[in-house]
Amino acid sequence: MSLLDMLISARRGTLAMAATIGLLVGLVLLTNSAIAAPIAGAISGGGPALSQLRYDLTLTSFDGTPIAVTVFQPSLAKGQAAPLLMYSHGWGGSRSTELTESDSLTVTARRAWESGYFVMTFDQRGFGDSGGKANVQDPAIEGRDIQTLLDWAEGTLTPHLAYLRGDPLIGGIGLSYGGGFQLVGASIDPRFDALVPMITWHDLSYSLTPNGVPKSLWLSLLSGLALNDQAPWVTEAYAQSLSGSVDAQATQRLAGHGLGAFCGPDGQAPRVDAFFIQGANDTLFNANEAAWNYQCLRQAGNDAYLLVSTGGHLLPGMQQGALGSVDADVQCGVSSYRITDLAYNFLDGKLRQLQRSIDMPRVCLTQSEHHGIVVDQMPRGGLQLNVESGDFLVGPPSIDLVLNLLAKLEPARLSEVLSRLSASSVKILLGALSGLGKADPDQVSAILTELVATLPPQLIAELGSAPRFVPLYRAIGEQTLAGLPLADLTLDGEAALDPRVFVGLGIKRLGSGRTELLQDQILPLRGVGTHSTELIGISTRLQHGDEVGLMLYGFHPQYTLSFSRLPSAVSLRGTVQLPLH
Description:
- By secondary structure, this protein is an alpha+beta fold.
- The chain has 15 helices and 29 strands.
- The strands form 7 sheets. Strands 2-3-5-4-8-9-10-11-16-17 form a 10-stranded mixed beta sheet, with helices on both faces.
- It starts with a helix and ends with a strand.
């Protein structure tokens, strides 16, 4: 059956849209050569001997919502006290009830339990066996859930719970949404002492709608994972994002649900030490967010550490690698480490050995299994280079590009996709295919909205327009490009058309003739005028002759529904600073 025949057939039988798709020359190692004196005071607590066991229970939060919990009780000698480690899951997931999973954080949590820690895993509100709806780590809701759990621990685990100067010794560990509970929890409750947040955020408004431009594919994936578990306002914000924008109220609310809301001159950063682990390829929560979290806690006088490795949140089918993972083994300067060892040693140093600082790299940015640099702060800017792009087009993909994409599908898959499209979309496609009609940008947008909910990301990726490569720098030997590039760029174009340009750093490797977008990282610039900003952090090695440049896209599939609504010609000029080492 031809594409035309299938469109005609789908036009007759289509009734509804499908549900949305279900989610940093190596430098000298700058470790602490001598660990600072321990924190003053002695650990108190301890009661009768305890045997190792695990048990499940349900706690009632402040508003009556049940929160499902598993407690892992350690084996303790008489008079021995144990710190508490709180561990929770990612968005749309559920708690570990056995600590038998093989990922780095569960291995760390189990090691803690077997080494004499209480470990508490829990299903966050809206997920697993807990009740309620997920409000994306609202301090006034999920934050109070965390306080409920801490209150229970103090009331029930005492006298075996370890204390220092009257305060319980509490640690946190978790990935993504499980990192969010730690940062929000520590920001509103001072009982936390040490955190290990992996691939998590600083400011959700930046994560999901940078410069006011929604990350369409990620938003569809995340909403699909928790469509029935998230609060109505979250669903409404997602629905808004399908138009390419999100209103100020939703953006402001999202901005309040992370460490970023408690940092800066108007905030009160928590007093807590932390080891941040982030993925350089993470297109949801990028390296910039970890750098901002690290900077926030360091400026507030806390002992913080940062590791940027490969991996992170990777779009299924569009990025290579496992969703939500980072390297198990990393190279930092002249030394190699296992992430599980770094995480455990950090927590144990803070919660049992009471060390002011830990013998580990302060900031490590890895570029491969065999190379990584160690610094004291995340590098920002560097060699300043001029940019002059010349004119290029921005706007939606053409209807022909959409038809070409559909034509690549196998007949059975094509038939399924078309059966899920609305009658109006099939009619538009039919008219365009037969040459009897034209599709305007709004109609293309409507069709793309439905395709984002129907096609896998790897197919949506084929809608990407060819980028404009603007050369900036040619490597003169082996070099490391790692840190946060800075840009001061002016976007010229028609202001009334609200143009959007998607900007990343790319490399033309010597001899390959191919240009690659570095670590799939892209940042939208919206509206004419000057944009002074950090570009997204990167971490890679350069060989002699490699050429670094800006990659400029008029349309990018990570932002499938967030393109300029009307086609127009734009240009960029200004400067970019590259963090070269």
